[in-house]
Protein backbone atom coordinates (compact mmCIF):
# COMPACT_ATOMS: atom_id res chain seq x y z
CA UNK A 1 0.00 0.00 0.00
CA UNK A 2 1.46 3.36 -1.01
CA UNK A 3 1.80 6.50 1.13
CA UNK A 4 -1.25 8.39 -0.26
CA UNK A 5 -3.50 5.41 0.50
CA UNK A 6 -2.07 5.14 4.02
CA UNK A 7 -2.82 8.84 4.55
CA UNK A 8 -6.37 8.30 3.30
CA UNK A 9 -6.84 5.35 5.68
CA UNK A 10 -5.54 7.52 8.54
CA UNK A 11 -8.36 9.97 7.74
CA UNK A 12 -10.88 7.15 8.12
CA UNK A 13 -9.25 6.01 11.38
CA UNK A 14 -9.51 9.53 12.82
CA UNK A 15 -13.32 9.41 12.53
CA UNK A 16 -13.92 7.19 15.59
CA UNK A 17 -11.49 9.32 17.60
CA UNK A 18 -13.40 12.44 16.54
CA UNK A 19 -16.69 10.77 17.53
CA UNK A 20 -15.29 9.69 20.88
CA UNK A 21 -14.07 13.20 21.71
CA UNK A 22 -17.28 14.86 20.58
CA UNK A 23 -19.87 12.47 22.01
CA UNK A 24 -18.48 10.82 25.13
CA UNK A 25 -19.23 13.06 28.13
CA UNK A 26 -15.69 13.78 29.25
CA UNK A 27 -15.41 16.28 32.10
CA UNK A 28 -12.64 18.40 30.64
CA UNK A 29 -14.61 21.51 31.49
CA UNK A 30 -15.15 24.64 29.44
CA UNK A 31 -12.58 27.00 28.08
CA UNK A 32 -12.55 30.63 27.08
CA UNK A 33 -11.45 30.89 23.48
CA UNK A 34 -11.49 34.30 21.83
CA UNK A 35 -14.26 35.43 24.14
CA UNK A 36 -16.60 32.47 23.60
CA UNK A 37 -17.53 29.68 25.97
CA UNK A 38 -17.24 26.27 24.42
CA UNK A 39 -16.59 22.80 25.76
CA UNK A 40 -12.93 21.98 25.33
CA UNK A 41 -14.03 18.74 23.68
CA UNK A 42 -15.52 20.78 20.83
CA UNK A 43 -12.22 22.59 20.37
CA UNK A 44 -10.28 19.31 20.38
CA UNK A 45 -12.87 17.76 18.05
CA UNK A 46 -12.53 20.72 15.69
CA UNK A 47 -8.75 20.28 15.63
CA UNK A 48 -9.12 16.56 14.84
CA UNK A 49 -11.65 17.32 12.09
CA UNK A 50 -9.49 20.07 10.56
CA UNK A 51 -6.39 17.86 10.69
CA UNK A 52 -8.26 14.93 9.11
CA UNK A 53 -9.64 17.24 6.42
CA UNK A 54 -6.19 18.50 5.47
CA UNK A 55 -5.05 14.93 4.85
CA UNK A 56 -7.36 14.98 1.82
CA UNK A 57 -5.15 17.60 0.20
CA UNK A 58 -1.94 15.85 1.33
CA UNK A 59 -2.82 12.42 -0.06
CA UNK A 60 -3.96 13.92 -3.37
CA UNK A 61 -0.80 16.00 -3.64
CA UNK A 62 1.50 13.00 -3.10
CA UNK A 63 -0.53 10.73 -5.37
CA UNK A 64 -0.34 13.19 -8.27
CA UNK A 65 3.20 14.45 -7.72
CA UNK A 66 4.78 11.01 -7.42
CA UNK A 67 2.43 9.25 -9.85
CA UNK A 68 0.96 7.02 -7.11
CA UNK A 69 -2.67 7.22 -8.21
CA UNK A 70 -4.27 3.80 -7.73
CA UNK A 71 -7.75 2.35 -8.15
CA UNK A 72 -7.80 1.75 -4.39
CA UNK A 73 -7.02 5.43 -3.84
CA UNK A 74 -9.74 6.49 -6.30
CA UNK A 75 -12.18 4.45 -4.23
CA UNK A 76 -10.92 5.27 -0.73
CA UNK A 77 -10.35 9.03 -1.08
CA UNK A 78 -13.94 10.09 -1.82
CA UNK A 79 -15.22 7.47 0.63
CA UNK A 80 -13.03 8.90 3.40
CA UNK A 81 -14.26 12.42 2.62
CA UNK A 82 -17.90 11.38 2.72
CA UNK A 83 -17.48 9.40 5.95
CA UNK A 84 -15.69 12.26 7.70
CA UNK A 85 -18.12 14.96 6.59
CA UNK A 86 -21.18 12.79 7.28
CA UNK A 87 -19.94 11.87 10.76
CA UNK A 88 -19.23 15.50 11.63
CA UNK A 89 -22.59 16.72 10.31
CA UNK A 90 -24.50 14.02 12.21
CA UNK A 91 -22.63 14.96 15.40
CA UNK A 92 -23.56 18.61 14.84
CA UNK A 93 -27.23 17.65 14.50
CA UNK A 94 -27.06 15.56 17.67
CA UNK A 95 -25.54 18.50 19.53
CA UNK A 96 -28.22 20.86 18.18
CA UNK A 97 -25.68 22.91 16.23
CA UNK A 98 -26.92 22.23 12.68
CA UNK A 99 -30.36 21.92 11.14
CA UNK A 100 -31.18 18.30 10.39
CA UNK A 101 -32.86 19.11 7.05
CA UNK A 102 -29.68 20.75 5.74
CA UNK A 103 -27.62 17.77 6.86
CA UNK A 104 -30.10 15.36 5.21
CA UNK A 105 -29.79 17.27 1.92
CA UNK A 106 -25.99 17.22 2.06
CA UNK A 107 -25.71 13.53 2.96
CA UNK A 108 -28.39 12.58 0.40
CA UNK A 109 -26.38 14.29 -2.33
CA UNK A 110 -23.28 12.36 -1.26
CA UNK A 111 -25.15 9.03 -1.48
CA UNK A 112 -26.69 9.97 -4.84
CA UNK A 113 -23.36 10.95 -6.42
CA UNK A 114 -21.69 7.83 -5.00
CA UNK A 115 -24.45 5.74 -6.60
CA UNK A 116 -24.00 7.57 -9.89
CA UNK A 117 -20.26 6.94 -9.78
CA UNK A 118 -20.90 3.24 -9.13
CA UNK A 119 -23.22 3.03 -12.16
CA UNK A 120 -20.67 4.82 -14.33
CA UNK A 121 -17.85 2.59 -13.05
CA UNK A 122 -19.95 -0.42 -14.03
CA UNK A 123 -19.98 0.98 -17.55
CA UNK A 124 -16.23 1.58 -17.50
CA UNK A 125 -16.40 5.33 -16.89
CA UNK A 126 -14.51 6.95 -14.04
CA UNK A 127 -15.80 10.31 -12.86
CA UNK A 128 -13.06 12.41 -11.34
CA UNK A 129 -13.91 15.20 -8.94
CA UNK A 130 -14.35 18.45 -10.82
CA UNK A 131 -13.70 21.98 -9.56
CA UNK A 132 -17.30 22.43 -8.37
CA UNK A 133 -17.02 19.23 -6.34
CA UNK A 134 -13.78 20.44 -4.78
CA UNK A 135 -15.35 23.79 -3.88
CA UNK A 136 -18.27 21.87 -2.35
CA UNK A 137 -15.89 19.81 -0.21
CA UNK A 138 -13.99 22.85 1.05
CA UNK A 139 -17.24 24.75 1.71
CA UNK A 140 -18.39 21.81 3.83
CA UNK A 141 -15.08 21.69 5.71
CA UNK A 142 -15.17 25.43 6.43
CA UNK A 143 -18.80 25.27 7.61
CA UNK A 144 -18.24 22.25 9.86
CA UNK A 145 -15.07 23.78 11.31
CA UNK A 146 -16.84 27.07 12.06
CA UNK A 147 -19.73 25.22 13.72
CA UNK A 148 -17.39 23.04 15.79
CA UNK A 149 -15.50 26.15 16.92
CA UNK A 150 -18.78 27.82 17.89
CA UNK A 151 -18.16 30.67 15.46
CA UNK A 152 -15.65 32.10 17.93
CA UNK A 153 -13.85 34.40 15.52
CA UNK A 154 -16.93 36.10 14.06
CA UNK A 155 -19.16 35.94 17.14
CA UNK A 156 -17.40 38.98 18.60
CA UNK A 157 -18.72 41.16 15.76
CA UNK A 158 -22.13 39.50 15.69
CA UNK A 159 -21.72 37.79 12.32
CA UNK A 160 -23.23 34.27 12.15
CA UNK A 161 -20.45 33.06 9.87
CA UNK A 162 -20.98 29.42 10.86
CA UNK A 163 -24.61 29.44 9.74
CA UNK A 164 -23.83 31.40 6.58
CA UNK A 165 -21.04 28.92 5.80
CA UNK A 166 -23.43 25.99 6.32
CA UNK A 167 -25.92 27.53 3.87
CA UNK A 168 -23.13 28.15 1.35
CA UNK A 169 -21.99 24.53 1.74
CA UNK A 170 -25.56 23.36 1.17
CA UNK A 171 -25.88 25.47 -2.00
CA UNK A 172 -22.58 24.18 -3.43
CA UNK A 173 -23.53 20.63 -2.44
CA UNK A 174 -26.83 20.79 -4.33
CA UNK A 175 -25.27 22.62 -7.28
CA UNK A 176 -22.39 20.17 -7.66
CA UNK A 177 -24.80 17.22 -7.33
CA UNK A 178 -27.00 18.65 -10.07
CA UNK A 179 -23.87 19.21 -12.18
CA UNK A 180 -22.75 15.56 -11.79
CA UNK A 181 -26.17 14.24 -12.77
CA UNK A 182 -26.62 16.71 -15.63
CA UNK A 183 -23.24 15.85 -17.14
CA UNK A 184 -23.94 12.12 -16.84
CA UNK A 185 -27.63 12.02 -17.73
CA UNK A 186 -26.75 9.74 -20.64
CA UNK A 187 -26.62 6.89 -18.11
CA UNK A 188 -30.33 7.27 -17.43
CA UNK A 189 -31.37 8.08 -21.00
CA UNK A 190 -29.56 5.03 -22.39
CA UNK A 191 -30.58 2.63 -19.60
CA UNK A 192 -32.97 -0.16 -20.48
TrEMBL record:
It comes from the Bacteria. Its EC number is 2.7.8.5. It is an enzyme of class 2 (transferase). It catalyses: a CDP-1,2-diacyl-sn-glycerol + sn-glycerol 3-phosphate = a 1,2-diacyl-sn-glycero-3-phospho-(1'-sn-glycero-3'-phosphate) + CMP + H(+). One of its GO terms (biological process) is phosphatidylglycerol biosynthetic process. The keyword Cell division does not apply. GO terms for molecular function: CDP-diacylglycerol-glycerol-3-phosphate 3-phosphatidyltransferase activity. It is found in: Cell membrane. It is a multi-pass membrane protein. Keywords: Cell membrane, Lipid biosynthesis, Lipid metabolism, Membrane, Phospholipid biosynthesis, Phospholipid metabolism, Transferase, Transmembrane, Transmembrane helix. InterPro entries: CDP-alcohol_PTase-I, CDP-OH_P_trans, CDP-OH_PTrfase_TM_dom, CDP_ALCOHOL_P_TRANSF_CS, Phosphatidylglycerol_P_synth. Pathway: Lipid metabolism; Phospholipid metabolism; phosphatidylglycerol biosynthesis; phosphatidylglycerol from CDP-diacylglycerol: step 1/2. The chain crosses the membrane at residues 12-28, 40-62, 83-107, 161-178. It holds the Pfam family CDP-OH_P_transf. GO terms for cellular component: plasma membrane. Its main location: membrane. Belongs to the CDP-alcohol phosphatidyltransferase class-I family. This protein catalyzes the committed step to the synthesis of the acidic phospholipids. This is CDP-diacylglycerol--glycerol-3-phosphate 3-phosphatidyltransferase. The gene is pgsA.
